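Chain A, query sequence.
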Amino acid sequence: MRHVNIALFVVHKGCPHMCSFCNQRSISGSQEDITEADVHAAAQTAIASLSLSDAAGGEIAFFGGSFTMVERSYMLSLLEAAYEYVEKGIFKGIRISTRPDGISREICEILKKYGVTAVELGAQSLDDRVLILNERGHTAEQVCNACALLKEYGFELGLQMMTGLYGSEDADSIKTAEKIISLAPDTVRIYPTVVIKGTRLHELMQSGEFVPKGIPETVELCARLIPMFENVGIRVIRVGLHSGGGVEEGFAGGAYHPALRELCEGRIYYNYALGELEKLGGGSYTLFVAPCEISKMTGQKKQNLTGLREKGYDCTVKGKDGLSKYEVEIKVIK
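Chain A, predicted structure.
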């Protein structure tokens, strides 16, 4: 059974702040407010294309904006439309994303009533200095309080973090990841900062006050962050913005790549293999990985093998059943 999200974007509705990085219309590619009719249309389209088991394992997801801070009757109309399919057992639940300061006990009661199963919070950083610089309008403490409340009500908890924000260095992102781990969410999304035209970050970039992190340094950082979460059982369900939807048109700088996660996971393999090979010395080697992970060990355009060769390690990659993700066995070629 596949996990399927029927994603609907609530474009910048309800959000009381304009964060430094935010231009929801560019990110979602949408200019129109969604309606109950849109919810029904998306659900019916998904039902027509999915098996019953896949649909039953899926969720109707309201992303973008700050769902719990939209005008109340509008929020309830969307929830009521989605709940029809949950109540009938067609989909397992509803997933929403919102701000940490958009969570209260009253909101949790409403979400429970309408079959919401998962709540993702846009934490972005757990450093108050970085939050202030990027005009988030909430504190790290509010993130912690919201997480505790959501856990009390039994929601699946997701946290979203950003790297490379204005005023943030890699060390800040590592500390944010450590604090997120202490909050024990079920899932995490990592969004390296992308500068979108029409945002405060774009202005800061144009003035030279902000220099966005590029792909290479972002990949190296995320190659550290992903294992931090996965090693403690926190699923990383997204790395980087989705391709399409207007992102490319609004892109002005920063770490955007349509296959960013693959680059990061390839770097994890490279770093591990290099560390082990350095213990063995230069020579020729076969690197065994799980068959489905061969392309990541090889790297895009074989960049991992090229990098290892430049350091004196002539390697080939082969698949081997029984190996887990990121596990590499090394054999000397005589």
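Residues 55 and 91 are 6 Å apart (CA to CA). The chain has two domains: 5-258, 269-332.
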